[in-house]
Structure formats: structure tokens, C-alpha cells
Amino acid sequence: MPTRILLEGRPGVGKSTVVRRLAALLLNRRAVGFTTEEIRQRGARTGFALETVDSGLRAVLAHVDLPGPPRVGRYGVDLGVMERLALPPLRSADPARGELVLIDELGRMELACTAFQDVVRWLFTSEIDIVATVHVKSDPFTDALKRRADIELVQVNRGNRDALPEDLAARFDSP
Ligand SMILES: Nc1ncnc2c1ncn2[C@@H]1O[C@H](COP(=O)(O)OP(=O)(O)OP(=O)(O)O)[C@@H](O)[C@H]1O
Fold first, then answer.
1. I need a labelling partner for 25 at 20 to 30 A (CA). Which of 69, 85, 104, 129 fits?
2. ipTM exceeding the 0.90 mark
3. 130 Cβ partners below 8 Å, 6+ apart?
């Protein structure tokens, strides 16, 4: 049975940092997937960049200056970035090669890509180990994942965020 972990936490608690540190700590496993990061201009958040875990490819996923569609809040989302950068490594993830999927995050902008929803559904039925971040906020897609009996829902908070990357790396790296 693969390990499927959802890291849940309030905005800014440190979920992305846990995922990035976990990717850097893994010795015997190859992590594939993506992380997202705020873009700030003159101190204000103007968008989000997406970066692939394995190859470090980076592009602007959402920005106040992008028109969309879709628009999520103040941001126009470039779904082509999901198609070109995020999906290929997820589609070719192979547990036989020791690969582990990291997704940061299962958020509204990412899930605006229906092909991404399909890939995530497939991943959660496959033999691939997964660590994905989710917000506390209710959303039909992530609520359904959180209710599954075969996932571990881990709350990220200030008390455990420093220890979590090493705890998770030890679990995934052990033979
Ligand atoms: N373990 C930590 N120790 C100190 N600072 C941290 C730690 N983890 C995260 N931070 C800081 O908190 C801020 C938010 O971190 P991060 O982006 O990882 O949170 P997040 O939960 O992924 O946020 P979001 O919900 O917006 O995606 C960053 O400035 C980061 O440097």
C-alpha cells in the first residue's frame, strides 16, 4: 500500500517549506512534482511561480497582470504552465524507479486545470507514494481527498514544522 500524506495547514504556516526541505533531504528516493512560491514586488504579493521539483524548471503560474481565464481572486492563471511544467513529471511518475510525488499545492489555481484534477485522481489510485499540501479551507476536491480512509492527514503547525521534513524523509528513505 503506498503512503499518501496530505499536509494541511493555515496560509503561511510553512507547508511549502516542509515540502522543499523534504525534497532536499531524500537520499534513496527521487522526488518528482512541483512547488509554488509567492512572487512579491515592492513588498506586495503579485502572483505565484511554479517550480518543478526534479528539474527546477520555473514559470509564472498566476499574476495580477495576467488576464486569464481563469481568474482566481485577483490573479489571472496561466493553465499552460500546469500543462507544460506540472503535469508531465506527474504523468510519468514511476514507483518502480523509486519515485515519490510531491505536490505543493492542491490549491484553487492549480485545480482550475481539470487535467491536473484527473492526474491527481489517478495518482491517488496508483502505487505511488504522495505528499501533497492542502489548505484548511473547504473545497469539494480536497474535501473528498481528506475524507479518504487511505490517506494520512497531517496538521502542519509552528510546533511540528521544523521536525516534519526529517520525520517524513526517514519514513520514505527507509528500506
Ligand atoms: N520552519 C520554519 N521556520 C521559520 N520560518 C518558516 C518555517 N517554515 C516557513 N517559514 C516562513 O514562513 C513563511 C511562509 O512559509 P511557506 O511558504 O512554507 O508557508 P505555506 O504554508 O506554504 O504558505 P501558503 O499557504 O501561502 O502556501 C515564509 O516566509 C517562510 O520562510
1. 85
2. yes
3. 2, 3, 4, 5, 100, 101, 102, 103, 123, 124
